[in-house]
Description:
The chain is mainly alpha-helical. It has a domain at 2-63: Arc Repressor Mutant, subunit A. The chain is built from five helices and no strands. The protein has helices spanning 2-12, 19-28, 35-45, 50-63, 80-91. It is elongated. The longest helix is centred in the middle third of the chain and has 14 residues, at 50-63.
Amino acid sequence: MEYVYSALLLNAAGKPIDEKGIDGVLSAAGISPDAARVKALLASLEGVDIADVLKKAETIAVAAPAAAPAEKKEEKGVTEEEAAEGLSALFG
Length: 92
């Protein structure tokens, strides 16, 4: 996740999202960058307009309907008589 966060941070700062930038952000956070993961991230972001994707995600989040509240099931309580019947079975 920290690799994606580094790309988002670079985007927010208006910096180029490249290997050097991601390595710098990760190193500053105390994370030793994995070159293969950095290259995989850059390959997956190729041709992606991050600002556009974030804008669409925001629109979807705002337009999503609120979840319906969970219905509360009524539990049938045990009467004192039923409890006593159960106890009498213990003493035969």
